[in-house]
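Intended use. Records like the one below are meant for learning the mapping from a protein sequence to its folded structure. Do not use them to infer anything beyond what is encoded.
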Amino acid sequence: MSAILLALAFAVAPMTATRGDNPFGATDVLLGVASLISIASAFVWKARQFSIASVNPAWTASRSVLTALAAMNLALLLSTLLNWELVQANGPDPLFNYASYAINPTLLLALYLEERRGRMRTFLIASNVFALIVGIVYLAGYFAGFEQFFYYTRFIGLSENPNQTALHMLSFEIVALMTLAKVRGLNRPTRAIAMLALITAFIVGILSQSDAFTIAAVVTIAGLGAYFLGSLVRSRSLWAGAVIFFGIPILLCLAIILNQPLSEAIASSQNELSYGNQDVVRYVLWQHGIDAWLTRPILGNGVGQWSGFAHSFESYEAHNSVIDWLSCAGLLGMVLYAAMVVSLFMRSPLRYTASYFATLSLLTFSMFHYTFRQPSFWLCFVVIRLISSYVDALGRHEERLSGRLAASTSAATPKEALQHQYGP
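Structure written out for the chain above:
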């Protein structure tokens, strides 16, 4: 039950428009409550047998993400305290601003503990179901023309801005991709739901007219195609063939139909992102974000928004996660983030094709927007790492069993080998 509640909280967390004029909304409360329930239930469940040292290899191999994120938050807190007066003058309440970072390790810990209890599969399946429901609701709102679902001409659903909607849909895509590519023994309805969740998320993301989503989604689809092409070559799977020859072309056709022509999109972006006589605003924000970081390069300026249109420290984000994080937490925070990202790529690209493309799509999106405050961003990292680590552990376990069985059969009859392996 706690895994399903956590999946529901993940699915609705980016619906920030529900906050209204309040700092926290119902979806924020649900996310916090679901995380605490998962953590509490994990410790209540066979509490005497529970210890961090006794968890399965997926926890041991994957805790780098949680450790790195907790250390990043501590680095940000240190920088905030050292620059308290500057942080207070920057804008919103610093404690509220920091809370959006602090809730992420709690969510990740809850997900780790659900995996410890063998409920990762339940979480993934429930996430795809809720993602499909959210996608259908969003599409219904789009075609019905609900005014509250639009920001001028861009579709935002129930988020505060279209970029949050785009990240929301990208996280749905990645969870669906990892479910299809890595979870074994899925029945046809479960696979169909995951595929439909991926398709609806893709359509809604395109409707948000986010250039970052379009680029990141192409990377995700490439990962999907590469994985299923490998499956088709290895096993001649009809499912893999259907995805390659029908599913991916359909997604690409939808992208062409729903999105603006490329020339119009470029012209529209230039018009919307221009400011006075300056160059494209995103480039200007990047430049001023770097200037803000260079004022305090080691520890950063603390929690806040440090870029601007005319100069630094105008309380605007740089719309680039690397630059924004450098300006907040300095080189110390960036080293911790880089270590976590590197750990995600320390695997065979041939064996972990889907994981590589999913990680690359997240990193691609993060280069156009500041994503570190969003739970969906970090949760996708954890899902990728947990599933990859589980596959590693399972492969090592199967290799050990095969080795033991081969050793026993070389020196014994089949009956003696079975007795040696499983007992008389």
